[in-house]
Design goal:
It is globular and about 50 Å long. The chain is 38% helix and 28% strand. A hairpin with a 3-residue loop joins strand 1 and strand 2. Strands 1-2-4-3 form a four-stranded mixed beta sheet, with helices on one face. Strands 5-6-10-7 form a four-stranded mixed beta sheet, with helices on one face. The longest helix has 20 residues. It has 214 residues and is an alpha+beta fold.
Length: 214
Amino acid sequence: MTVNNTLIAAPKAELASITPRVAAISRDTKETDVKVEVNLDGTGKCDVNTGVPFLDHMLHQLSSHGLLDLDIQATGDIEIDDHHTNEDVGITLGMAIAKAVGNRKGINRFGHFIAPLDEALVQVTLDFSGRPHLSYGLDIPTQRVGTYDTQLVREFFVAIVNHCQITLHIRQLDGINSHHIIEATFKAFARAMRMALEYDVRRLNEIPSSKGVL
């Protein structure tokens, strides 16, 4: 029993000593100015202002369901459209998450979640693989939700994937309401990412790959 207690206590002690995974990234271009701060081990605190209300709403879902503390402040040429701001927020957030997670030692690496929202049902599976890939399977029936162009959902995830270097598969299993489909996607992504980024107490000091590197 003493041996078992020691084995159980050791991972808890190691977890308690782990430094919080935080990062801050700024991206300033002729089109946008984006500042992102992220804490991967947060409680869902969220301060987001991108100038794109629907994107703000989705980022709040990401923070709440992923238990990420997010501070995202962005200005952009939204007088033209939301494209540049939407993309650059995705780029900067992806960079911040990648910086915060570091060498990916000790994480579960894989995450999977199926989120319902009324009639909508969306499956997200992801891998912090170090290899950017997006398989996008949403069929959003309307061109806009409010003023937000629904084509920008894919662009946001392209930006996240490329700059966070993850493999991401998104599948729509059901749904006819555009808002519900998109929100279910962000919730499923948040939950899958939370699962992937949580520590595996059985190999806290190892890279979760047979190659020894991600």
